[in-house]
Amino acid sequence: MAKTIHIIGGGLAGSEAAWQAAEAGAHVILHEMRDNKRKTEAHHTDVLAELVCSNSFRSDDAKTSAVGLLHEEMRRCNSLIIAKADENKVPAGSALAVDREGFSQSVDSAIKNHPHIKVAKEEISSLPPEKWENVIIATGPLTSPSLAEDIRKITGEEHLAFFDAIAPIIHKDSINFDIAWFQSRYDKGEGNDYVNCPLTKEQYYKFIEALIIGEKTEFKEWEKNTPYFDGCLPIEVMAERGIETLRYGPMKPVGLTNPRDPKVKAYAIVQLRQDNKLATLYNMVGFQTKLKYAQQAEIFRTIPGLENAEFARLGGIHRNTFINSPAVLDHVLRLKSAPHIRFAGQVTGVEGYVESAAIGLLAGRFAASDAGLLETSTPPATTALGALLNHITGGHYSSSIGEAETRLFQPMNINFGLFPALESKTGKKNRKEAYTSRAINDLDSWLTKTRKAA
């Protein structure tokens, strides 16, 4: 059995897969196309595990949140990505948000200093040669066109695609704190983890109008029919869905009180979240956008408190691709038509940093198992890891739960709707905790059966 595992792609999924396989004893070669000369349309550095969108890994509540549960399961599985997120945590209420650069640098360092991992800075522009007997493709949402074409040919399926937008980042010292104030919604976390910018009804309506009429990035002809993923809609697309939509989404004013005038409630509020450990940069929560740069600066500076905003990075947009995983992958993420090749990360049809890394974690372990280095199995469907795997591989655990329809397959965040029903009736108030308690118990039982091969 091949003890060398080739991993193509050094994002969150590829880095996590490399770590898991190397920790099991495999020799890993991690192939990453980005170097000091070549980047992608969304990346700015050649550092492994660069975060190209938000700096938030979302809720870290392991008792009542599905993604928080996934964090905890990954911690128990020795996840590199979650460990480095914990090390580089910045204030974000009950969420796990990280210092963007510190996080990526620490992952990069851990990978490059692991004795069983070699990082090869090179582009793999086609499917790997047959002599690579154990391969994980974790090229993420920005798979190069030539490799994507090879994947399309070998899977026999047309690639699906959607756009993912990036939120702007603002220098803290350019925020007007005579208007803005620090507070977490309902005072969660430390109670002051977000910067809040209030809008009156008149200001809000003018802002919505500006978003709708603002000049947008033009799509290429072949991109025009590509759908967005609902979990990361551009702010202007949400505005077009109804004038009050944003007030019930990222601009909702609930749970916040302006300390300068507690009796007057804002009609809408824009929140900014700390983006680096030095607390010098803040990103606009939920403000991913495809507005042109000049329009972004002009429109976002109409927000009270941001009238003099200086942008460290303006919003952007990039094209994501994913395979029809239920149709082409088996229950351990292998390509049915070429079982020596696995897929991991966002290209498999999961959405979100944590979900991508989680599939990388599983792919690395499964590859190590194929190499005879690890005794493992698929995690129980009752766990967050198992539920996510079950979704993208088409319901291999059971014909009655979590089946992903191959014709309608779309990217998915982890959520309790992917889990098997609870065995006993539980009140609505305690249902989430029942899911998470069952998951942790079942995960721990699974981990006791997972060990290095003799």
Could you please describe the fold and organization of this structure?
This protein is of the alpha+beta class and 454 residues long. It folds into 2 domains: 4-159 and 323-452, 3-Layer(bba) Sandwich (FAD/NAD(P)-binding domain); 165-319, Elongation Factor Tu (Ef-tu), domain 3 (Beta Barrel). 29% of the residues lie in helices and 18% in strands. The strands form 5 sheets. Strands 6-2-1-7-17-16 form a 6-stranded mixed sheet, with helices on one face. A 6-stranded antiparallel sheet has the order 10-11-12-13-9-14. α1 links the parallel β1 (4-8) and β2 (27-32). It is globular and about 65 Å long.
Write a concise synopsis of the structure shown:
Helices cover 29% and strands 18% of the residues.
Strand content: 15-25%
* DSSP E strands, number: 19
Annotated CATH homologous superfamily of the largest domain: FAD/NAD(P)-binding domain
| Arithmetic mean of pLDDT | 89
Radius of gyration, taken over Cα atoms and rounded to an integer in Å: 22 Å
Report the end-to-end length measured between terminal Cα atoms: 14 Å
| Content-based structural category | alpha+beta
Q: Which ranges are low-confidence, i.e. pLDDT below 50, for 5 or more consecutive residues?
A: 396-405
Q: What is the class of the largest domain in the CATH system?
A: Alpha Beta
CATH topology of the largest domain: FAD/NAD(P)-binding domain
